[in-house]
Prior knowledge:
Strand content of chain A: 15-25%
CATH class of chain A: Alpha Beta
Largest interface: C-D, 62 and 62 residues
Radius of gyration of chain A: 18 Å
Distance between the termini of chain A: 44 Å
Oligomer: homotetramer
CATH architecture of chain A: 3-Layer(aba) Sandwich
Order of helices and strands of chain A: HEHHEHHEHEHEEHEH
Number of domains of chain A: 1
Helix content of chain A: 40-55%
Amino acid sequence: MTSRYGSSTDETYARAGFGATVHRGARPAIVVVDLTNGFTDPAAPTGADLSDVVAATSSLIAAGRAADVPVVFTTIAYTDAEADGDAVAWLTKAPGMRALREGSDAVAVDPRLPVDRRDHLITKKGASAFFGTTLASLLAGLRVDTVLVCGATTSGCVRATAVDAVQSGFGVLVPRQCVGDRAQGPHEANLFDIQAKYGDVIDVSDALDYLSGLAARESAAVAR
Amino acid sequence: MTSRYGSSTDETYARAGFGATVHRGARPAIVVVDLTNGFTDPAAPTGADLSDVVAATSSLIAAGRAADVPVVFTTIAYTDAEADGDAVAWLTKAPGMRALREGSDAVAVDPRLPVDRRDHLITKKGASAFFGTTLASLLAGLRVDTVLVCGATTSGCVRATAVDAVQSGFGVLVPRQCVGDRAQGPHEANLFDIQAKYGDVIDVSDALDYLSGLAARESAAVAR
Amino acid sequence: MTSRYGSSTDETYARAGFGATVHRGARPAIVVVDLTNGFTDPAAPTGADLSDVVAATSSLIAAGRAADVPVVFTTIAYTDAEADGDAVAWLTKAPGMRALREGSDAVAVDPRLPVDRRDHLITKKGASAFFGTTLASLLAGLRVDTVLVCGATTSGCVRATAVDAVQSGFGVLVPRQCVGDRAQGPHEANLFDIQAKYGDVIDVSDALDYLSGLAARESAAVAR
Amino acid sequence: MTSRYGSSTDETYARAGFGATVHRGARPAIVVVDLTNGFTDPAAPTGADLSDVVAATSSLIAAGRAADVPVVFTTIAYTDAEADGDAVAWLTKAPGMRALREGSDAVAVDPRLPVDRRDHLITKKGASAFFGTTLASLLAGLRVDTVLVCGATTSGCVRATAVDAVQSGFGVLVPRQCVGDRAQGPHEANLFDIQAKYGDVIDVSDALDYLSGLAARESAAVAR
Lengths: 224, 224, 224, 224
């Protein structure tokens, strides 16, 4: 299948040794990036209608529960000092993010998602869920080997999180229906880059099969 | 000017508060990402003809010298244990990078670049020049406020470095002619994302003016 | 003056090239480590009477205000998932820290400290104020060059923060009266290590002079 | 048993919930901190006679080989730009470390240690083996759960590495005979802190038993 950039680019990438298949480990985690009201409410300036992404991610989480897969939600949230000042360099380039204040509704996880008390919540200040957070430590502490990245936006925090996940030592899987963006062009361009260089972009049905397989294996082990 | 994704995307991004102008500080550094033979030699599987990028970056460095701007080169280089084993997750997805061995010609900075003994060299293992390196510490130690990102590839290590530079507290400028890629589509898509969210994509002439301005101010201060 | 370990150790350290004097920059920040109720309330299991430390730190902050010195408070605070689970490795070794729950009184900054709305608050999960946080990025964004480390405990989070501060590119000063511990032995042993290897352990009067000097210089610059 | 600081300190620490026992996982790694000539050659200004530490660490590595335990060596090594300049803040406080130049004999691993081609080598610029390196990513990529910290010096790089190892999500074990220092006082003070707060300080015979247990289990699994 030819990619969005045509066969010449595909050949160049094949020659450079990109796009190999990621090993799916026995201990995945689901990382749900920024599916907070500020991003999933179309009325919010930084938001978009991500109902399908929320639904697909919810189904993935449900499948993960059966296999005891850890779930980590992330949110971008700033203190008043951060939101009103100049200390956070990113807020100079992307001032729209200043609206994401600690304690506000905008930074709460979208209530349509099935959050559980055992789920982790990572508060971040930048694009990547790993940058300036303990996410890598948490995943190491949970003995995770593979990260399923969901959430928003594909061209921003999802991309940055996928890059950092593989740099942090984890196999990366991105179920296509579980990630979304404000605009289709950047969404697709970033899925191309992720598939080529950082993780496998897969169908959500494939991701669900992977998780059911783990759940079945676990049940069998218990039954033995 | 309408962007590559059309006016609807542009409006969505404007509403989300992206694309503001970066403050240009009094103390920039030039970070030259992976302009090593493995990337600049078209004969290398991971390489491309980046002669124009090397030339533009060389002119930027020359202008920086006059203003005592610190220059940092980066290289991707693996030990035999890393290149031959499974410990580095990224090498599973991008096995072409396994060829970049410590001590080999592929990991040496392209000899067309004007490297000076006082320049820093950061050896990295992933896409970002900041990940798993002391680059952020070095820039803080040098009291840098702004990072000019040059090098290759736009859709890989340059993008990852720009994201981490702004997350690390620095204003980010990307002189368009100083970055390059194996293919035009991903190059342009990533310049769009960088300009919207992480740093200012500017003309190299603009970057040269910025550096000459600093050099002039410095001479004036010495003369006083 | 002979140190707590005797002249033979002092000679060994001098030969190894330790204990040089830190340069005091024009742009310091005050980092107040974990002066939260859980550490300053003697009734808390993890607490101790640190009234003198709180008082000395308050006077340092007051002096800093006159020179527009940024102030950063830190707190250790865990989500329920972190406090009740096994994902945070440190909580296995130091289970007493599990009591430090988000939203509880134990994780609030001691009300005797003069917290201002422009002050930053860093929530951390480990010993170091830098680990898994954006503190280094924040300090870089604030163009800080020197860090005055205050707080508790000297043998735990203060030591870890001092080590990471110098590793992150900042000169480190520890005003002796502004740090405290649950027990005198570990307090003094760690001040020895910090003075030898990571920062200057100084008298609070010296630190106050440093900050007044900056304030005076700033007033003079404004008057000119 | 009363500690070096007496029973009152011991009671305070027990009340604060320190000193719990670390879980020993199924997948340990051995991290050998800075057993390079610059630290193990008594003639080097920064060195000391650590022959016993080298011998004990060698026996631990040998036991680890039988259980396929990954081994990571670290070295401090600076480029000329780093060693001669002011960018690395730590070198201002500890200028003796400037002698540790890339490519010099001082930064090579002590030849008495049984280094294998599959072993990892981490080059670091600060005290902690984790800071500004990919060690955490490497350990995650190797699916490690427990870190055995060996090397020098107890009061410097070993301590900093132990703190970062537990912060990074790993259980920490420090075999007493496998770590050493230039002076006895700081050595013992830091073992006290590590045992209280960061990892279990154990006898090397205990560590050897742990590794033989893993090797036996592995052989049994293969035989089945």
